[in-house]
Amino acid sequence: MKIAFIFPGQGAQYVGMGKDLYDNYGKIRELYNKANEILGLDIAKLTFESTEEELCKTSNTQITILLMSLGILKILEENNINAQYTAGLSLGEYTSLIYSKFIGINDGIKIVRKRGELMQDCKGDWKMAAIIRIRI
Prior knowledge:
The protein is mostly helical and 136 residues long. The chain is 56% helix and 6% strand. The protein starts with a strand and ends in a 16-residue tail after the last helix.
């Protein structure tokens, strides 16, 4: 049987997401500590204790979703559950790239943090939209 993982994008976040996993799995805490060292940012506090407004800032949302997705992957790998195929929804593409070893985890963390900051700081008259149920 072949397995595929599809990783979520921005919009899947909520304050406290994955706190139970963080509390119960050392591998997830190790991952968060690694990200803290790389970024100089307490990701656990941001994810579990911030306000909805703070978490929903693009600069914060993207890195917290990435780390939660990577943390869940650590649990799956510990249980010998691996995917042959991966994909991601927008931001989720980076989780897919890290899982596929196309980019390293340290670089992926830095890239996603910078991506979130750049998107947060984007100025001008622009909008983003989702296209749903397109028919060709």
